[in-house]
Amino acid sequence: MQLYFLIVFGDVDNFLLAVMSYDRFVAVCHPLHYTTKMTPQLCALLVAGSWVIANLNALLHILLMAQLSFCADNTIPHFFCDMTPLLRLSCSDTHLNEMMILTEGSLIMITPFVCILVSYICITHAVLRVPSTKGKWKAFSTCGSHLTVVSLFYGTIIAVYFNPSSSHSAEKDTTATVLYTVVIPMLNPFVYSLRNKDMRGALRKVIGRKRFST
Question: pLDDT confidence of 129, banded at 50, 70, 90?
Fold first, then answer.
């Protein structure tokens, strides 16, 4: 059950990052058509589609995992139930599971990533045509927080899941997994709220008070 929800929430986060990149693309490249393109119906469809695909993907991996036998030590060297540590404990042939992670799992991860990449290529092309430097900076600043979260999320996911199992170590996997399951979700509110002028002003005041008190 823990593994199922881990996969679901990880996939949903992945798809929503792609949806947000499309939202940024429409806002920057087609600002006058934003309300007609990003309708409530389309937003609801994108979110619902993300949940459906995430649940189907999680169900596939859970069913494959259920076919394995675990006849050795059942203590997982991890802080939660993840696929890679579970496969390491199995005394069955895990070739199919690893192949599905590297193929179907790669497709689930790469497709949204490609959508994000294409969106930002189009955004960059549109912004470079803006004549004023101030206009360019304003356009890029709207995407900075999203790009930060995308880099952190995909960097740690690739480090954990898309390497041969022989190159994995429990310490490295645990560290990277803590980053994308605990640290990045905790940072998200701060990263996105730094776009708000009031939040930036409050942060400067707090830092200024600490410097003054020291």
Answer: confident
